[in-house]
Structures are given as C-alpha cells and as structure tokens.
Structure to design on (384 residues):
C-alpha cells in the first residue's frame, strides 16, 4: 500500500507511517461510536413494559466475524489448530431505554462469559440481564443475585447437578423423559449454585425439536440415546424473577427479546457488510473498518429512532436496513454535497416504504405485553 501511494503521489511513505495513521483513525472512530451511543437511542425499546421491581432490561449477546487467516496470531478463532482467524463483537443492549451502553471487540476465540465483569459495571441493582448459553456460569448467577440484579438465562444440556431446598439431588432428566406436560417448574439450585431459583423446562413445538433431533443426529453421526432425544425436546431456563413478578409465559417472551439483537447482528452483516474483511491482513485496518461500520449503524439507527418516534410506528431492523442499503449511493452523494433537506426527505420516503409493508405476526413486545396483562402483577416491586 505504501509503495502504491508513493508512486501515485511522488512522496516517499513508509508502511509504518500508514499503520500509525490507520491506528489513530481506529481510535477516533471508536471514540465517535461511543460518543454517538452515549447521546442516542438506537434500538426498539420496551417503554410501557412493566415488570415489578425491574428497572432496565439488558440483553447481552455477541457475534463473530471471519477474517483473513493471516491474522490468526492476532485474532485466533475456534478453528482447528489455531489457524483460523476471527474477531468477536460483544454488546450489551438496554432495550428499556433503547441504548447500547457497551460494545467491545475481542478475538473470536474469547468466550462470551469472559465479559461478565463488564455486565456488572454497566448494570445497576434492579436491572434484568437476559443472556444465552454462552454466558451460563453458576457462580456468576449467584453473584448477580447477591448484588440484586435479576437474570434470565438458558441452562446447558450438560448440566447434571440439580439440588432441591434440602440439598437433595433431583434427576431432572429422568423426570422429563416420562413427563407428559408442556411446562415443568421447580425451585432448584442449578449447576453448583448456592441459591434456589426458578427452574423452568418448556417443551419445544414439534417442528423445532424435530429439527434439533435431525441436527444432533448429523452432529453425532449415530443413533441418539433416549436422554439425547429428550434433551432435544426441551428448553431449560433459570431465573430469580419471582412468580409474582413474571409468569412462565412472560419469562419466555422476555427471553425471546434476544431475537431483536440477533436481527441487529444479521443486519450488520447482510445489509451493511461489516463482515466483508476476508482480504484485509492489517490488524488496525480491520479494527478501523469495523468501528466505521458501527458508527454508520448507530447513525442510521438514530434516524430510524427519530422517524418511529415522530410517526408512533415501529420499523423492523431488517426492514429498515434493507430499505436504506438500497439507497447508499444516493445518501453518500447527498452527504458530499451537504443536501441536508433532500437527505431528510429521502429518509422520510424510505420510512414510508417500511410503514407500507404490513406486519403478518405480532411483535415480541406485543406478545410480552399481552402475557403481562394476563398475569396478576404485584403493585410494588420486590428485590432479588
């Protein structure tokens, strides 16, 4: 790169000089993203969703981006022999306020649960953290409970230690093998945890567990055991929200809110091209590119937030980014020429296109509010 620039400009430029410039650009873009996040509302929020005793609903999630394998020494992935390269984007999303208080980049091989200390820094007593299997650790859940945070998380199928109030071993899997109902709720200590929490087993719809069985059979390459077949049919959840705070249905719908964040990751890749980095072999270029894409994302989400606030209508993440990405060339030209009024009109037109596309199913928020309305909530909150 340095040689090409030098030939085109007639100025001698070293590779190190370019690397230093790119590194400073990466730092600037990262700072801009954090500044934009601190002054923005970007995601669908749960305003109006009232869980007794809960202040903010926070969702933790991460997504991996494949890189050129030449970067494996810097950004190792989980591939065989450590020869694969990837970077992981970690996020913590406050869906009550619509804010993204935490974004971080690490090597893809880093486990999600290693960011749990950051979750304590960002969250406050009374907040609810919703996390998937990648974050499950019994000592971490005990810490959340002690420090008066609420949580909802799935339980790994590999967990076998379940204790009741008398510290007697409960064989949950034996019970589920013969259980004919659709939901099973117990108060248990799970995975070596020290506190009794609500353990909720929910039978999956037939279509979902049949797919799980098929995927598991292909992964194992053999006939499945009776236990494995049973495990494929159930989702296991653990929470310290009380029955008075949230019914089983509400717990399920709260956990489903993670789908909103997965849609954001999907949009970043499919519409905004954040994962188009397979040719890059420079660490600083990779970081700068990702932070630039994230800045672009935050700004576009803010536009979406302004439009939905003004029109009192929600626009799905996938739908919004698909509409906007088709007009990127026009948007860039308007920005270059500082045609702010025309740009505002264009965004209004894009929003109208989204509004005109009808919703076929109730949103997660609508289902959540319905389950809360059907549940007899206490008038005063309770602490974990």
């Amino acid at each position: 790169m340095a040689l090409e620039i030098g030939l085109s400009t007639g100025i001698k430029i070293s590779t190190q000089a370019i690397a230093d410039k790119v590194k400073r650009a990466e730092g600037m873009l990262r700072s801009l993203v954090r500044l934009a996040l601190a002054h923005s509302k970007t995601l669908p929020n749960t305003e109006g969703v009232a869980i007794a005793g809960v202040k903010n609903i926070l969702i933790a999630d991460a997504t991996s981006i494949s890189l050129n394998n030449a970067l494996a020494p810097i950004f190792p992935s989980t591939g065989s022999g450590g020869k694969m390269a990837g970077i992981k984007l970690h996020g913590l999303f406050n869906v009550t306020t619509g804010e993204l208080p935490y974004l971080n980049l690490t090597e893809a091989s880093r486990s999600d649960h290693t960011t749990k200390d950051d979750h304590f820094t960002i969250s406050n007593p009374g907040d609810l953290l919703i996390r998937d299997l990648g974050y499950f650790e019994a000592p971490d859940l005990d810490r959340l409970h002690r420090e008066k945070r609420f949580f909802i998380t799935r339980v790994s199928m590999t967990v076998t230690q379940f204790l009741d109030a008398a510290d007697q071993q409960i064989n949950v899997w034996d019970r589920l093998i013969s259980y004919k109902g659709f939901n099973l709720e117990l108060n248990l200590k799970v995975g070596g945890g020290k506190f009794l929490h609500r353990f909720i087993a929910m039978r999956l719809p037939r279509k979902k567990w049949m797919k799980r069985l098929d995927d598991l059979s292909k992964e194992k390459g053999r006939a499945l055991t009776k236990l494995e077949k049973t495990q494929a049919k159930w989702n296991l959840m653990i929470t310290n929200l009380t029955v008075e705070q949230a019914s089983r249905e509400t717990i399920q719908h709260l956990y489903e809110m993670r789908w909103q964040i997965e849609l954001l990751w999907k949009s970043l890749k499919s519409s905004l091209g954040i994962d188009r980095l397979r040719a890059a072999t420079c660490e600083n270029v990779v970081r700068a590119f990702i932070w630039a894409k994230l800045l672009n994302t935050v700004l576009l989400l803010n536009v979406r937030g302004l439009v939905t606030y003004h029109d009192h209508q929600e626009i799905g993440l996938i739908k919004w980014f698909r509409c906007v990405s088709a007009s990127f060339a026009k948007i860039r030209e308007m920005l270059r020429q500082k045609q702010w009024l025309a740009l505002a009109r264009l965004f209004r037109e894009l929003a109208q296109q989204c509004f005109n596309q009808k919703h076929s199913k109730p949103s997660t928020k609508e289902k959540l509010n319905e389950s809360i309305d059907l549940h007899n909530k206490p008038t005063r909150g309770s602490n974990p």
